[in-house]
Amino acid sequence: MLTNYITYSSLTVILTGLITITLALFVFSYLTRLTLKKNRERHERIYQNAEKWITESLKKHQSDLPSRRITSFFKHVLTVLPLLEKLNDANDHAAWQKLKSNLVTKVLLPKARKWSSSYFVKNRHLACRCFALHAEIEDVDKIRMLLSDRQITVQIQASFAAVTHFLETKHDELIRIAVRDMKEQSPKWRFAYKEAFVLGKKPITNWLEQEIKKEKDPGTRTVILDILSEMTGHDVVQYIEEDLLSKDKNLRLMAINILTRFPDQEHAKELKEFAHDVNEETKISAIDAYSTMMKIKAIPLLKELLHDPSWEVCLHSALHLRKLGDSGRKILEDQKKDEK
Fold it and tell me: For residue range 37-53, what is the model confidence (pLDDT) as tens digits?
């Protein structure tokens, strides 16, 4: 009897505890959802009020900031920063530039300067985004520090700030650092850097074109050609004459890849020679460029390279022959018969 009573009491305690925990979890979940909903509504309200105020100010060509009202709208940086970035992408006229400069200077930069030396990567990212909207002369050292950050994602974000600084001041110190950093990075990270330069449009293009004319360092030339190929299209071909003959493998590959994207018949002879280069990567790039450029006239070279010692070169040659229609396919079929 006593045993049954103890068992019953234990089960009652356990059941009561489970019910209590379940209710506590339910209440916690409900309160969390309610808090998140209120925060979301508050952020949306702040975003809408800030956007409305900016739109009205632009219509009135007003750039002065009523301090109390602006503080209430723009002190929530995480909410307002995406709005300013969106408007900055959509506007380039003088009224917006003046209003943006005042907003960023008075509201964002004080926080960005603190965040720039923060231990947390997220804060350093936010600092870069603020500086990418606008930066003062006193912020140059902080941007330079962020360009050398231990986290590459922060370095990439800081390159946007470097481009903005150049567009506002025409001082190229920071974008030179960004180009130097790109030189040290692998192609996958360099792609992210390029976006910052592409957004710089004509002024950045002009600067890069002046630099490529006098730059001698192969690594730097490779980076500049890579960026210019995204910004100027076929016009970049005029700068690669000497680079096709460079002893630096990466620079030579960049020049060949540019010809793959922007075929130029004047360089067909060099590409045909590169198709027999000792470096496998160079051979493959040359095959791609030559086939793109010469079309059906590339068949004799592709047929020859089907017997190359490198299986990757053979594969690329076969793929290009297949793309050339019946003539190319016939060569591949004959090749199969010979192998049998």
Answer: 787 777 788 778 778 87
